[in-house]
Amino acid sequence: MKNLKIIIGSVMLLGLGACRTLPASTEKTDAAYHNLILDGKIYSAFYQQRAAEYEALCLQAYNIAKLQLDNAIARHQGEKPLAIVSDIDETFLDNSYYAVERARQGKDYDQKTWNEWTAKGIATPLTGAQEFYNYAASRGVNVFYITNRKTEERNGTMKNLKKYGFPVQGEDHLIMRSAESSKENRRQEVSRNFDIVLLLGDNLADFSKDFDHKTEAERSANVKSLKNEFGKKYIVLPNFGYGDWESAFYNYNYKLTPKQKDSLMYNAAKATP
Hints:
Layout: H1 2-19, H2 30-50, H3 52-75, E1 82-86, E2 93-94, H4 96-104, H5 111-120, E3 124-125, H6 129-138, E4 142-150, H7 154-163, E5 174-177, H8 184-191, E6 195-201, H9 216-225, E7 234-236, H10 244-249, H11 258-268
Parallel strand pairs: 1-4, 1-6, 4-5, 6-7
Antiparallel strand pairs: 2-3
Helix pairs in contact: 2-4, 2-11, 3-6
């Protein structure tokens, strides 16, 4: 009887398996492709919202930033006042909620819905962010926020900074994007009157023109050539959800659909070294 039950159970399992139609490994359905990117957005946002490891990475970055800032203050002898330059999104404000909402709707980023999100001014601070930026301001260091949020997003951005008590030392310390996406000219403008001793960002283009619109190979090579700056003058915050690392892979083709992105990424991901 026991053997009979085993045989019957095995037959039932085989029958259930036969009822399931699985796509061939080389033929992914449109839905499978479409979900690869959007589910990935939720997965990375979930990590950002829930993982203690993510909090630890943020604290690690800000702790190093504080140490290097103290060193810069101690050795400062120039006439120009000291300044730090910081990106905003995913550098000290968490926008993962926007990514989740869009992914649940089966959609990716677009400028209209992003503007609606930033207008609310409710993105939350990353762990340790408030303490670091206010510490810098308390030491007499000028904090400049250089962001690629557009000029029409200024009011919502300022609302967000003030909501969580980030230091705003003047209207000119919040520098929006009015034209080009490169931040180089804006950084240079700050450097005319200030000694920039520290830069913080989640994207390599937040630090140097050497990363503006570069290929994957160029970005990698430039990281290696600037290796002594990371953890010293350049402080990188983790962002697994979006960035130029992704755009570089797509050769900066911003017209690709989520399905097209999925297809490219699926086929480029390596299963072996």
